[in-house]
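Researcher: Good morning. I'm working through a list of sequences from a screen, and I'd like to move beyond sequence-only analysis. For each chain I'm collecting a predicted structure so we can compare shapes side by side. This is the next one on the list. No need for commentary yet; just the structure.
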Amino acid sequence: MRPRNVHKLGKVLVAALAVAIFGGTAYGYTTMSSLDGVTREDLIDSPEPGERPADGSLDILLVGRDSRTDAQGNPLSPEILRELRTGANGDDLTDTLIVLRIPNGQQAVKAFSIPRDSWVAQPGEKDKSKINEIFGRTKFAVAGELRKQGKTDKAEIDKQAITAARKATLKAVEELAGLKIDHFAEVNLLSFYEISKAVGGVEVCLNKATKDRDSGADFPAGRQTIQGADALAFVRQRKNLPRSDLDRVRRQQVFLAGLAKQVLSGGTLANPARVSELIDAVKRSVILDGSWDLLDFVRQMRGVSGGGIAFETIPVVNPDYRYDPRHPTWTAVQVDPAQVRAFAASLIGAPPAATSQAPAGPTVDVVNASGKDGLAARVADVVGEKGFTRGDTKAEAGRRTSVVRFSDASGPAAEIAKLLGGLDVQKADSVAAGHVEVVLGQVYKGPGSSSGGGGAPGQGDQPITPDTAGCID
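Model: Good morning. Structure tokens for this chain:
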């Protein structure tokens, strides 16, 4: 991954989910008026009264922001920062993005995570970046433009720049997933810390003991209840996990499922002190869009159960995508917007979005030099599904790295190299005219590298629900 000053915080978005599942209960309904003091910001046009989302689903974007401030923009105290096991400086990144899809007329809630390093188009631009960088890039650009216009009030500049940054993040998610966001909720690490304590902690289960000095994670194997700084360490751990950030996303989902179960338990809702602490934590640390009528939302959510919430992750093409040849150690998570849109549509039973096709082009021959059985055939299937003509497959002596070779047309070769995770491209006279040759090395991790299909690690994970969340690595 691109070097950063410190590890980035993989925060779960417990606050907005707590609002959703708490408000869906009779007790929660009678006390929701207590949330009138939550911080608001106008990000989304107000819907018509009683209007159902045109795309068939109420979609709520939950954003976890790497910020050392509270919901009102006040810096966190040194004491709180020490308790959170983090420093005073944090990048303006949206390190956790989760979409809740609530189908029209149903009580099921479908939630999906977008990995923070997903390589996506920046709204309104041709350039691409990691989706978690869009917030900071937009904030910086807008603040600079306001200063050029002669603005000098720092508080007002920050307010307008942050609003623009939130809108850009929202737009990027809409364009990637092919949906219309109806509501927005943002939390930071203080939100997570306070809400996890307010509910009395959440039970999680680990298959084996784990430790990570950067995040502060130090957990034994087995079932355990965690809250506060320990809960934050649990969901921000990235090192010493088999699949790094993809496993961190999985931990976020497991914790959210445990939170749902805890909030819906009799022990939480029957305890007025716990309910009061939960509401106070939400009011101190959550930002909601100005159009979100919480009481109306509660009416829609009456009767939802914890078992009706399922967490998944969007399809991933390549979790180790080298997007800049000048910096081969910089990686991102490659995603295909067409796959993501089809996946999002499938969560509410909508017809899948049409799969984008690569331009008609050459015959693609695939050479397996990795020593892995069946790899050439699987990769040939991937390029064939994208509209290219499938050619011959064969094996040859092993080599470590992968390459795409061409003789007479570099354009299609570059497109195929990008499709397969950013492979090197070389001109080679040995390749027949009208053909492109893909040579797969031992370290190839792109589409087709798994015998389970074109998805990257994490793609075969089963949905997590409060009733099915088991032990994880």
